[in-house]
Design brief:
Largest sheet: 5 strands, mixed
Number of helices: 8
Protein name: Non-homologous end-joining DNA ligase
Distance between the termini: 54 Å
EC number: 6.5.1.1
Helix content: 25-40%
GO molecular function: DNA ligase (ATP) activity
Strand content: 15-25%
Low-confidence stretches: none
Order of helices and strands: EEHEEEEHEEEEHEEHEEHHHH
Number of strands: 14
Shape: globular
Radius of gyration: 20 Å
Keywords: Ligase
Strand order of the largest sheet: 11-12-10-14-13
Length: about 325
């Protein structure tokens, strides 16, 4: 991001602050910097020591996800190397552990922040389960996601667990379930599949665990695939959507009265005041029930099942 510095924040020279952030953002790069600097203390708690992927948007270009830090990354930005099995190489991820790093990312036009479920000091354990409620397209999509989230809440309660809920910042809902370190990554993934399946059984006309979109038939997808090395949009992270909404914590009892567009980089700080509703709502880490893990081990991994089904359908079409 070459060019004369407009001003300096947290020791980072900033440029082009008055440029539009992206089409339909209703915000400038300055708005992004202002927001992230203001929310930094709350957000860094969720980013700390987690390999970070960001989604950047340059003027006149499509947004792109950045995992490997660029060569021009300052030396003071902490990084960690992670082996990427798919590409058979080490990827150097940033660790966003301080305000300076977050402001630097903002100056690089990094709008979205997607940390891993694992931390660098314990890469063999996830710290939480994620149930991502992805509604079908339509005018009532968020309302459907809210109804599906309540199914997940009931499934958790039935299993003796509890979670917190936030808007995804897009069109859906994230249910986050903090867990302790007694379960392996594979066990946590199995438990997530079991919770999703139980939620689906509570109302199969509303919710589905079908990974293939064509098989969902207008239902809310209860996505249980955010496990292991997966990432999820961090709480308070902006999203590249019209109006630049942010992923925002909402109490279970308030879900029916909000919409994702209610929370943007222009109003979220005023809504937060001096508080941190996410920290207030998150339950303490919990052990996973053995029966939940056992049930999950009987459920195929959705991506793998979809891959085999895709191959089967391709063979059928040829025949």
């Amino acid at each position: 991001m070459a060019g004369k510095s407009d001003e300096t924040r947290a020791g980072v020279p900033l440029t082009n602050l008055d440029q539009p952030l992206f089409d339909a953002a209703d915000a400038t790069k300055r708005d992004l910097v202002d927001y992230l600097e203001a929310v930094a203390d709350r957000m860094i708690v969720e980013l700390r020591d987690r390999p970070l992927s960001v989604i950047r948007v340059r003027p006149g270009q499509e947004p792109f996800m950045q995992k490997n830090v660029p060569k021009y990354t300052p030396e003071w930005v902490e990084t960690t190397k992670v082996w990427a099995e798919a590409s058979k190489r080490e990827v150097s991820f940033a660790l966003c552990n301080d305000v300076r790093t977050l402001v630097w990312f903002a100056n690089q036009r990094a709008v979205e922040y997607h940390p891993t479920l694992t931390q660098t000091h314990r890469p063999d354990r996830v710290t939480h389960l994620v149930l991502d409620l992805d509604p079908p397209a339509g005018s009532s999509e968020f309302t459907l996601a809210v109804r599906a989230a309540q199914l997940v809440r009931q499934a958790l309660t039935d299993a003796g667990l509890s979670g917190a809920v936030k808007t995804s910042g897009a069109k859906g809902v994230h249910v986050i379930v903090p867990i302790d370190t007694t379960s392996t990554i594979e066990e946590a993934a199995a438990a997530t599949r079991a919770i999703a399946a139980r939620a689906e059984r509570l109302d199969p006309d509303l919710a589905t665990t079908a990974y293939v979109k064509d098989d969902r038939h207008g239902k809310v997808f209860v996505d249980s695939t955010r496990a292991g090395g997966a990432t999820v949009a961090a709480v308070y992270s902006p999203r590249i959507r019209p109006g630049t909404p942010v992923s925002y914590p909402v109490g279970w009892d308030d879900l029916d009265s909000v919409a994702p567009s209610d929370f943007t980089i222009r109003n979220a700080i005023e809504r937060l005041g001096d508080g941190d509703p996410w920290a207030d709502q998150l339950p303490a880490p919990q052990p996973l029930p053995a029966e939940l893990i056992e049930e999950g081990h009987t459920i195929p991994v959705a991506r793998v099942l979809a891959m085999h089904e895709g191959k089967r359908r391709a063979r059928a079409r040829k025949e």
